[in-house]
Amino acid sequence: MNEPSAHILVVDDHRDIRETLARYLVKNGLRATTAESAAHARKALKAASVDLVVLDIMMPGEDGLSLCRHLVETGSLPVILLTAMAEDTDRVIGLEIGADDYVTKPFNPRELLARIRAVLRRTSQVPKERDPIDQEQMLFDGWTLSVTRRELVDPSGVNVPLSSGEFQLLCAFLKRPKMVLNRDQLLDLTTGRAPTVFDRSIDNQVSRLRRKIEEDPKDPKLIKTVWGGGYMFTADVSDGA
Amino acid sequence: MNEPSAHILVVDDHRDIRETLARYLVKNGLRATTAESAAHARKALKAASVDLVVLDIMMPGEDGLSLCRHLVETGSLPVILLTAMAEDTDRVIGLEIGADDYVTKPFNPRELLARIRAVLRRTSQVPKERDPIDQEQMLFDGWTLSVTRRELVDPSGVNVPLSSGEFQLLCAFLKRPKMVLNRDQLLDLTTGRAPTVFDRSIDNQVSRLRRKIEEDPKDPKLIKTVWGGGYMFTADVSDGA
DNA sequence: GCAAACCTGTTACACCCTGTTACACCTTTC
DNA sequence: GAAAGGTGTAACAGGGTGTAACAGGTTTGC
């Protein structure tokens, strides 16, 4: 759990944001450098060995998107995008370009930290991360989920019927294991719906899913709650091959 | 699992979209060529051996639909359509013409990649890809459906008589396996009728078909219900060759 | 031509799925 | 330690789904 302190480059044209964020990251055991523009970021990247870039998508001059594209194409540096508004188009664009994650402003620094750690964990584990989205079969902790057959089989070989919503939720988790997913993301990933003000539907679906896959739903081992952040699927996931 | 890199032709009149998408595909281990119009696409198809075409349905000049129709009728090239809006009509038209799949804009590139891989998997299984619409025989999970004879034979060789409505429905499913089809699409695909307000006819036909082909109609394995979405045929389908 | 058999859309009702609400409990903050 | 706010989940309501029953239409057999 104690990484040898990863180095984060924070790129944002707002001084407040980038410095506060950098301080917060340092306070939490990471190293951080700031850059106020895409040009400064390029210099910083040449000067020091950076492990991950947090990048505002909207900046004067060369904007975040084009730098992001550059980063993703050339080096294999993980990128987390900051997007001003929860615009669907931005999100799609960000993922298209190949950002590893995105966070919408105003963001919770804890959430961002969790995402940074999740991305670092992912990118350091696997030499080259593969998109598990089209896996037909996924395994975790003795369980088997057949995506095409929409069936879940427990370690002893018994079929566990899932509702459509539970199936979707489990898929979302399995595609992004060991990553903190907040409720809005999960809602988007499962139903595509936009979050409303007091939406507890994800909490309820998680509760229902836990009842089916956790040995002791009161002390869940597979789906952990990240207080103030969301949920995280903790088991190792592999494809059926 | 590691194909010798399939070659995708991306046809879209928006430069941003086609280039970003092409880059994304290449980054994920595929080869990609772009074309900005149907005419350019035709040239590209003659010049290089393409495995699959991703095609925007709305383009100035000769539009995507007519090129799609051409591709499906002449060559045996799988096609994935991009449709601007989630217009049901577009979707149905695309499937009618024989596109292998469609994706609505704004699309999630990961999803598109997954669909591309799924289509490639499906079409590469069969030595010679043909439009499954005129398949004489289709196999799934031990069953045989003879399209010309309109006969269904179960795994033990017993003939299971189908009404014409049930036959139509099963055909619709077999032509689009592992795809969620909503009730309106199924209604259109089977009867060509437009949906009325409270139309439960598809539900009833599904129920009747399940009674004939599912081992346990109460716990269906072949035709799964997608709550709020429609139905999905889950078995692998191949032609009789 | 007639009746029986069959097919299929409609209706009705039981059941299931899921979002909302409410409240107890927990974590964090001050 | 109290206040504020996040989380777990039971209970409920609304709406989606399965399917039996029925009616009208069509086909089949004679």
From TrEMBL, chains A, B:
SMART domains: REC, Trans_reg_C
Record has Cytoplasm as a keyword: yes
Gene3D superfamilies: 3.40.50.2300, 6.10.250.690, Winged helix-like DNA-binding domain superfamily/Winged helix DNA-binding domain
Alphabetized GO MF terms: phosphorelay response regulator activity; transcription cis-regulatory region binding
Protein name, UniProt field: Regulatory protein VirG
Domain Response regulatory, first and last residues per copy: 7-120
Superkingdom of the organism of origin: Bacteria
GO cellular component, one term: protein-DNA complex
Location (main, coarse): cytoplasm
Domain OmpR/PhoB-type: 135-235
Gene Ontology biological process terms from the UniProt entry: regulation of DNA-templated transcription
Pfam families (UniProt xref): Response_reg, Trans_reg_C
DNA-binding residue intervals: 135-235
InterPro entries: CheY-like_superfamily, OmpR/PhoB-type_DNA-bd, Sig_transdc_resp-reg_C-effctor, Sig_transdc_resp-reg_receiver, WalR-like, WH-like_DNA-bd_sf
Protein location: Cytoplasm
Positions of modified residues (4-aspartylphosphate): 56
Keywords, comma-separated and alphabetical: Activator, Cytoplasm, DNA-binding, Phosphoprotein, Transcription, Transcription regulation, Two-component regulatory system
Keyword DNA-binding: yes
